Amino acid sequence: MELAKLLAAEVVEVEKKVFPDGEVYVRLKGLPSDLGSTCVTVANTMYPNQDTALVETLLLLNAVHKAGGRNVVLVAPYLPYMRQDKVFLQGEPVSAEVVLEVLTRTIKRGLVVDVHNPGILGSRPWINILVSDILVAQALKYVADPIVMAPDRGALERASFAASKLNLEFDYLIKERDRVTGEVTVKPKSVSVAGRDVVIVDDIISTGGTLAEAAKFLRSQGARRIVVAATHGLLVGGAMKKIYEAGFSKIILADTLGVTHNSPSINYVSVAERISGFLKEVCLEQ
């Protein structure tokens, strides 16, 4: 609804229900009679209950297509299955490719906020919207003279993007994960954090293991206050306990999910204005 207000856009009511056998039903109520040239936006963050939300989104896209919509933009603040972006162990699928393929079939453009690996989007008509600068700007209220730190090389683009926008230093840690046990170890690259505050930037906080290990290493190197600025705060599997025990001063999260966590340590930041800016450009293109 916040996105619709920013765009002054008409909102179409979606009727949803689940049949007794578990199948999902959706219906768009009050659609305009002629959608031909209209820029139709289907906005759905696919969390929690990712499987159901994914099916709902596919059905909504089909409903718009059947109603004559041809200029369709999918806004997915959070896309599930994006972390399985390659075959890590023999016999695995590339789940991210599967999800992107089925979602892309009936859309002109897709907008996603901070996808785990932007390279997986390839030549598909998707735009990856970075918001790390918005989150780090909020984090600056709780730190002084900070270094923006990526917990691994994969998050370096997020850290460098925020640091360049806010004129801050940045660096990254070397992370190794055992693909069988899931155990994470952190090794230094070339950081100098002694006596400095640190803002760790990442796309997802899932179980919090990566962040806890990063904080442990940074404290061993003399870091002072450590704040987390992450886009998608799933916070599952005892993540909050790990984060508390790791001694983070604050957790800054974007409002990309369908749920929030009630904790005085967490600040949520709206990224709707950033999304609406990209959406306006995309609709003007069409």
TrEMBL record:
The keyword Nucleotide-binding applies. GO terms for biological process: 5-phosphoribose 1-diphosphate biosynthetic process; purine nucleotide biosynthetic process. It catalyses: D-ribose 5-phosphate + ATP = 5-phospho-alpha-D-ribose 1-diphosphate + AMP + H(+). Residues 2-105 form the Ribose-phosphate pyrophosphokinase N-terminal domain. InterPro entries: Pribosyltran_N (IPR029099), PRTase-like (IPR029057), PRTase_dom (IPR000836), Rib-P_diPkinase (IPR005946). It comes from the Archaea. One of its GO terms (molecular function) is magnesium ion binding. Its EC number is 2.7.6.1. GO terms for cellular component: cytoplasm; ribose phosphate diphosphokinase complex. Gene3D superfamilies: 3.40.50.2020. SMART domains: Pribosyltran_N (SM01400). SUPFAM superfamilies: PRTase-like. Keywords: ATP-binding, Kinase, Nucleotide biosynthesis, Nucleotide-binding, Transferase. PANTHER family: RIBOSE-PHOSPHATE DIPHOSPHOKINASE FAMILY MEMBER, RIBOSE-PHOSPHATE PYROPHOSPHOKINASE 2. Belongs to the ribose-phosphate pyrophosphokinase family. This is ribose-phosphate diphosphokinase. It comes from Thermogladius calderae (strain DSM 22663 / VKM B-2946 / 1633).
